[in-house]
Structures are given as structure tokens and as C-alpha cells.
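Journal club prep — side note

Before the paper discussion, L.F. wants everyone to see what a predicted structure for a comparable chain looks like in C-alpha cell form. Sequence:
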Amino acid sequence: MKSMRPGDQRQGELDFPFYAATPVALSLRGWLIAGLGCLVGFIALFGLPQMAPGAGGRLAGALAFVAAPLIGLSIASGGHARSLFPGPRAKDLLIGLAFAPVSLAVAALAAVLIVQDLGAATANPVVSELGRMGALQQVLFFASAIPQLVGEELITVIPLLAVMALCVRRGADRRAALLAGWIVSAALFGVLHLSTYGWSLGQALGVIGITRLVLTIPFLITKTLWSSTVTHIAHDWLTLGAAVWLINAGGEAA
């Protein structure tokens, strides 16, 4: 088989990248470097807005949240980070859009069950922040959310592939390794949201973690982050947009 530049072949014709030799298999050191990039990006996402409050700081944090994992993965893989973003084809985007209502329904059901079990739930503080913004600020907020959501896809899929690689090297078959990576990465994603939801483990894992399982499915089908990113953007925009509309409608009624 001839060698190819990153992204030259459709991932759907090959396999998930980096856990095996497609396009390269990362060593333990490589996965640590990629993981460090995810950690640096996550810290920057929250740290830069605190250093520079306002839209500029928020955008800088979101861009760093994307750049740091990509730089770490690129260093670890010898410049093959683009392999996470083959395409996209129209089919990839349509699959991403198709899973948005599924993720919304699962999130709503999980939230209802968690609230019944815990007796209460913590609202995302972003909702009240958006409610205090003017129309232009809201538009800018939704636009700046795009790079942040790309970053969230990266810090989900990189650990997924790392767990998959570890399991395969330990003798697990591909399907079991993928299942382990899917579950562990969703749980990690939920844990990263603990501070957002009042340190409620039930809400972080039971709502955010379960929703994350659905958000990842488009990537599992298409093997491109374009697809799951479309799902995530549509999910968050619809969720936050509906919340803002309800706040505005309540204000007008009052």
C-alpha cells in the first residue's frame, strides 16, 4: 500500500486513527504528549477569560482549547493530526445533523430521571449569562462557541483513541477496545463538567456523560470529527437558544 499524506484517504475506508498503524500508531510517550495538549487546552479555556474578561478573552480561550490538543497530537504523530478531520462529505454532515435531535432527546430524558432521583439539578450558568446579554453579544457568543465545541470533540476523541490503543495492546479485540474507549471518554467528559454543575457527580455522569455517548456516535460511524462536531454545535445551539428564548419570553410576560 502506498504511503499517503494525512487526510488523503477517507477514514471510513480505513480505520480509526492512531490506535494502530493508521496513519501511525502512537507510543505511550506520544499519547502522553497528546494528553498534555488536551490538559493545556482545557486550562487555557478557563484561564484566559479570567486573565482577559470579555468576548476577546473568551475567544482566545476557545481558540487555545482547539490549538493545544492539535499541536500535542501533531507532535506525537509526526504531523498527522489532520487524520481526525478527513473530508467532510455531505453524508458526514447529514449524519451529524441527524443525531442532534437524538442527543437532545437523550439529554432531556436523562435530565428528567436525574432530577427525579436527586430532587434538584444545577442549571448551566451560561444560560443566565446569555439572558443578560444584548442581541449582538448573544450572536457573538454563539459564534465563539464553535471553536470551543471543536475543542470538546478533541478532548473526547483523543482519550477515546488512547484507551482503544491501550486495550488493543493488552490483547483486547477491536470492538471491545472501541467500547471501552467510548465509555471512558464519555465519563471523562462528564467529570470535566463537574464544576459547571455544582460538583454533582450524578448530573455530570448521568446527564452530561450519557449525552456525550450519543454525541460521539457520529464519529464512530464516519470516523471524522466533522460529523460529531456538527452534532455538538446543533445540540448546544438549540439547547442554549431555547433557554434564551424562554428567558426573553418570561421577561416580556412579566
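L.F.'s comment for the group: Residues 135-169 form the longest helix (35 residues). Keep this in mind when we get to the figures.
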